[in-house]
Each structure stands twice: as C-alpha cells, then as structure tokens.
Amino acid sequence: MQIDLLYGRDGLTLDMPDGAETHLIEKPAFPACDPPAKQIARALRDPHGAAPLAELCHGKSSACILICDITRPVPNYLFLRPMIEIMTAGGIPLDRITVLIATGLHRPNEGAEMDELVGDPWVLENVRVENHFALNDADHVDLGVTEGRGVPIKLDRRFVEAELKIATGLVEPHFMAGFSGGRKVVAPGVAHHETIRTFHSARFMEDPAARECNLTGNPLHEEQLEIVRRLGDVYALNTVIDDKRNLVFCSFGEIIESHLSAVDFVRGYTEIPVGRKFRTVVTSSAGYPLDQTYYQTVKGMVTPLDILEDGGTLIVASQCAEGIGSDHFRAAQERLVRLGPKAFLKTLLAKDFADVDEWQTEMQLKPMRVGRIQLYSGTLSDSDHAVTGVDRITDLHDAIAASIAHHGDAAVAVIPEGPYVVPKAAAGPG
Fold it and tell me: What HEC string does 85-153 produce?
C-alpha cells in the first residue's frame, strides 16, 4: 500500500510494509464550494458582527492589514487586492494602507520570500508591505496588562494607530492556542517580545487546557481575546484551505465573531474520532511551508498524542530544509539534550518570561513523556539532528516494520496531513 504524505513542496510516497494493518486518518471531504473570488466577495459583503468592508472604510484615513508570515500557507494572493481596492474606493489613500507581516518572533520575510508570501505583484507595487519586529521596543505601544493573567499588552504601533484594523489568517488546529487565525494574528503576531514570552511561559504551556482544538478555559485564547478587545474595533478575514491549498471557506467581520464562525466550520473536518490508540503512529509536519524547520516540526509531534499508546512509537516525516530553526531554539534544544526532559522543565517553571523559542522545546516534552519519537528528514544535517533529542531514521518503510516487530502489533495509524488533522481516541463526540 502506498500513501502520499505532505512533505516539503513535492510530497513523499510512503510504502507500507507487507502485513501492516494500515489505518489512514484523513479529513472528510469538504463540501463543494464557490470559486475563491466569489467566496471572498461574499464574505466582505456579508460579515459577522460588523458592517460590510465597504462601509467600514467610510470616514477612515488609514488602514493596516495583518498577514501571517511564510510559515502559514494563507492564500494572501486571493484577497489582498480585493480588500485594498474596496478600501481605496471607500476613500482610504493607497499610501495610507500598510500590509504588516505578523512575524511574532520569527525571522522577517524579505525579497523573493516576501514576493511569494504576498503572491500579488500589484499589492507589492501599490502599498507598503512591512515586517513586524518584536524586539524593537520603539515600534510598540504599551496598553497596560490584561486583567486576567497580567500579560503585558504591547503591540505594533502601525496596527494600533491605524483607523481601520484588519487581521487575516488561516484557521486550523493549533497545538497551544486551540486554533490559529483571528485574535492570534494580533497577539502574538504583532506583539512585543515581552507579550509573546509571557504567553509562552510554563504557566501557560503546562496548562492542560492549552492544547489543539480547545478554546474552553484555554489561557492563551482567553488572554488573546482580552487583548483584541482592548484595541476597540478590530476585524478579521479568516480562511480555511484543503490539503491541495484550495480555499474552501472564508469569513469576515468582527475579529472574535468571524474567527468563531471559521472555527465552527473547520472543527468538524479536523477533529477525527478514531476509536482507539496505536502503538505505531506515522505522521508528517504538513509539508511546505510548515515543515521547513525542525522548530515547526514539533507541532506534528504533539497533535496525534491522543491516539499514541504509552510507550508507543511516533514516526514523523519532516523535510527541515532550513535546518533546526533559530539560534534561540537551538540553544533550548541543546539544553534539553544536555539536561534531560525533567531537569529542562524544572528550569522553565520559575520564569515569568520564557526565553525566545524555548517554548517549542517545552512542547516537545509532551510526546517525549508518552513514547519514542523518530524523525525522517532527507535534509537535516548531522549537527542539527544531534540537538533534536529524538531518534533519526533514514527509511520510513524499515522504521515502520521495526516498530511493528518491536511492539508485536501490526496496526499502524498514518496521518498524511500531520498537525492539520487532530485524531481522537474516542469513537465519537463526548
């Protein structure tokens, strides 16, 4: 049996061993939908909890549109120009419209990468497209702290001071915040490093409610809601795509209501009741652009944990063409390898501010507590792999066969889309 995994730009064909009892875990098919231009036009014309975009522009002299960075395959090329043309028709001058890349603490997207991210030369030629830099203190406005958990609210002034504020993004499972998109594009997307590092401290990360597909009691989600409410009127365009990157859903409106409408839509296609656990689970890191670093690969390790038996083997295919990730992340991984999981976690628990990118290493502790992790990457160097803290494999077929033999169990769960699908061990709701 052959299975196509999302891996890099081109995918990877997995040959399952003879005798393997393969349980393929995929999203159900999305319903037929209108062409993208029609979906977007309808969303902008018929919003959730707000006036249509054309009306929101009246009386406004400036606008800021947030877009996700290169790690998210958001179809920016489909909606940026239509939104900007509505804004200019409503009286906002082109030179007063900024497209701001919500990098969080990721690296900036520049040059050819920015061209790919925006995907529309007209946009690049007609409006300013700029990166957010979380470490630049002067770029941010201090709005105090949240009442709930005392998170510092420091946000990029280009967004705060714009008269029309719109976040855009992709709504999919997120292994900390429940779902991506909406409020998350604002914080941590264009937040100061102190805001981001507070969100990612151990008191948030170790909360059992901070998990994929969960918004109830999720501390990150609750603080994000308070932050966007502090800003006043904020709007969002939320998209959902299928495994071929086709637009299948689009919602616009007040940032919280429009995001929840997209969550309601996507939840039924991403949370998959399986009815059991497995001793061998094979997954991906969702292919390009998510699987370009080992940093992002951790997401693929966390989302299938509900179906991994204690002591089981989790096999992850991730290209990691750009290596391990940031220098900050490498330092955290080096500490993990040197100290071991328990001692590493102990260093985190007393901090109010997490060190940059060490939260991803903290999330890796979750699968390490459950079973054995094996990584297939055709490009990760030996020096990078040495700091992953997981086992290296060079042949997926052989690794699956070895896991079957080791556990004495031929059942293998395979999740081609990685973290975009969240399998649940329960047979159904509840």
Answer: HHHHHCCCCHHHEEEEEECCCCCCCCCHHHHHHHCCHHHHHHCEEEECCCCCHHHEEEEEECCCCCCEE
pTM of structure: 0.89
* Half-sphere exposure in the Cβ direction for 276 (13 Å, CA): 10
pLDDT in tens, the chain (430 residues): 999 999 999 999 999 999 999 999 999 999 999 999 999 999 999 999 999 999 999 999 999 999 999 988 999 999 999 999 999 999 999 999 999 999 999 999 999 999 999 999 999 999 999 999 999 999 999 999 999 899 999 999 999 999 999 999 999 999 899 999 999 999 999 999 999 999 899 989 899 999 999 999 999 999 999 999 999 999 999 999 998 899 999 999 999 999 999 999 999 899 999 999 999 999 999 999 999 999 999 999 999 999 999 999 999 999 999 999 999 999 999 999 999 999 999 999 888 898 989 989 999 999 999 999 999 999 999 999 999 999 999 999 999 999 999 999 999 999 999 999 999 999 765 4
Residue 40's alpha-carbon distances to 45, 331, 389, 420, in angstroms, are 8, 43, 43, 22
What is the Cα Rg of the chain in Å?
A: 21
Of the candidates 114, 94, 97, 100, the residue with the CA atom closest to the CA atom of residue 66: 100
Spatial contact of 285 and 380, defined as CB atoms under 8 Å apart: no
